[in-house]
Amino acid sequence: MADNDIYDLVVIGGGPAGYAGAIRAGQLGKKVACVEMERAGGTCLNWGCIPTKTLLKSAESYASLKKMDELGIIIQGVSVDFAKIIARSRSVSDRMAGGIEFLFKKNKVDYLRGKAMISAPGMVEITEGQDKGRFLKTKNILIATGTKMRRLPDLAVDGERIMTSREALAMKKRPESIVIVGAGAIGTEFAYFLNALGTKVTLVEMLDQILPVEDEEIAATLARAYKKQGIELRTGTKVENIQPGTSSVKMEFVKGDKRESVEAESLLLSIGVVPNLDGLLSRNVQLDLDRGYIKANDRYETSVKDIYAAGDIIGPPWLAHVATFEAVQAVNGMFGASEPRRVKIFPGCTYCVPQVASVGATEKKLKEQGIPYKVGKFPFMASGKAVAMGEPEGFIKVLSGEKYGEVLGAHIIGAEATELIAEFGIAMRCELTLDDIHATIHAHPTLSEAMAEAVAATHNEAIHI
Amino acid sequence: MADNDIYDLVVIGGGPAGYAGAIRAGQLGKKVACVEMERAGGTCLNWGCIPTKTLLKSAESYASLKKMDELGIIIQGVSVDFAKIIARSRSVSDRMAGGIEFLFKKNKVDYLRGKAMISAPGMVEITEGQDKGRFLKTKNILIATGTKMRRLPDLAVDGERIMTSREALAMKKRPESIVIVGAGAIGTEFAYFLNALGTKVTLVEMLDQILPVEDEEIAATLARAYKKQGIELRTGTKVENIQPGTSSVKMEFVKGDKRESVEAESLLLSIGVVPNLDGLLSRNVQLDLDRGYIKANDRYETSVKDIYAAGDIIGPPWLAHVATFEAVQAVNGMFGASEPRRVKIFPGCTYCVPQVASVGATEKKLKEQGIPYKVGKFPFMASGKAVAMGEPEGFIKVLSGEKYGEVLGAHIIGAEATELIAEFGIAMRCELTLDDIHATIHAHPTLSEAMAEAVAATHNEAIHI
Description:
The structure is a homodimer. Chain A is of the alpha/beta class.
């Protein structure tokens, strides 16, 4: 092997961490390869964020038709082509994944197809797939293999009776009824999507609230909205004895000492993720793990020199934007482009309707930590833009330090929550205070004004409530 | 008159400046009255921002139906109830104006109806309307009378052949064809609204670009989009010899030495505003003016002691959010609640489709001022969220100081531009750099990610282009 066959970096995994890390290395003029066993873009582009948002667009558009009459638009009749909805979602994924492949070329990233194994530090072998048999010698390795959907032992995922989100994204027909197990972001989004199109949805969560990581008041507001939309919610409930049949799946809901038999056409498991480590490490390579995830330090270094890891594979919060950020930081650090930054503050979004987004601490967490805080709240009902749009549901809540007024957390439920949260993200990252936000002129009429009003409400200075 | 009849503040005008100033004084525990000659909320709530956004929501919703098929939703037949669209718009205005009246009560603001005259410093007389004949003695006066739509001499506005935006907001029927004179925000928004519902629209602008205050590249992009939508654009063109008839209005378009005769069902004048000063000042009260607008210093004081002015009446930029900010600052200053802040950085929004929003300097302005700057650009075509939404039109452009990377201006055209601009607004207000924005983790998949990418693009570090 000649010297010019030696890579500066081999990235294993082509998802939001892997492709971003590889492209960043390319930007830095490094010789880099990215090995992906399925398709560039990873879960996010192919089986996660992007295709779900595409489905949600169809569902929201369909739901918007109910409000058309109020807006002065009269519609005679509507029908849904479910196959077309799914096909558009797949086609958007294909287009975006193709975009990543284009970016690989543009940034001179060698894109290799197959399953990779680290045979030794500095050595990657492709053990399966199109490029099977290739050995890559490299100075650095970045592991970005991510996660896959958790399944249940002894329960086969057949894609019809039993699905994870992956199968659900390629459903051939819309089930008439479904039980969704797990009310995190994925379960909650699928619940909206299917219910909006007419499926009878039961959303089950083992913990006491849907969206367990979100603020209690936000989750309670979403729960009310979901019930109004016709979604059945079961919190504090486990699902046991799942029995798939030919045309339906039977199960038991267990809450405390009560058991109830339930039947539905399909069951969707959205009960978290497990790390993709299978076949990655040869016997010669032992990396320190933490609960199954690779341990990485503040420079994203693993316990073995020149092997880095970033993204979902180093553990929670399992968010695409965090993964991308980590990988870029890892690459900047390994090549001395800049000091790698740690992930501290990051937003979380759920694309349900109304949307939910947050950054920083919840009230519960601040109470647990004994941090004195103030609350500023503003309802969208008092926002001219929200009323003009016909979407007055929800509110903004901002939590700030009692003494200095620094933003400690922000929680939004309502229209465009997932876009609005960006302002609070930058406020927290740059340690801005309530006064900084209040002194900023927000455009009228926008939803973003409501953020300044929520901030002002902390000291009873909001104008519109 | 007993001492308790003496007001701490009388606010003249109940628009975004006036009502906000009055409510703020109420929050500070002051005895305050607000005199309004029409309805609380002023032009913004009743004849401007809010009712236009309501109309635009209907137009956008109608336009969205064309994309439904692509989203897998099949619609059999559609018709438009134009009267209902107008009625909803009026009803949203009524609701919001009622909200202001409620806030007056809550904040103990005396709400008086009529036309006010400052008879002397410390004395306001109501000369017309419901509360005609009342004299108010007051320590301070805040003038917030705003502006009204500019008309043309010798051209009667009849609300059918010839309209300003005020009449257009209460149109009885949609004209089959219209010439809109003036392509600022108002003209540009009405052009979208009417064209989307089927009117043949010609938008005429005397200057060389539509949205003359916006960045040239943004305006050119909007012009292309408008042409594609079927709107006829005439820039560098004057309208002369306007002749209203019984069923149409005739006029001439003049461009250089070319004259062209044009006929349309209606003509909408959106050629700016003029100050509302008529009858406001008695002979005893002389205020310094600047081009017809009241001169105010950094504390919003006029040339006469204890008479303040804020909002449109003190001159450009004639934006509701600037007016509100100024009035709150004026009141904070007059009662010593806090040092009044000057307006420096403010966003501007046009709710056309695609939306346009900006803050800070344009490239043209930076060139004129000889300020060295860098450009970072990111197209929504490369945003996963924009593609998933089916709205990949437009881009984000951020201008930053060559040496320190401080944000000098930001210009957005595309979906939710008017919400996204908030982040750049806070960045400019708090003197954040590109690095601060780039170091902030933006949620995926959102449109707001594109802002971080535009920033990164300045140094060729964007991942997705």
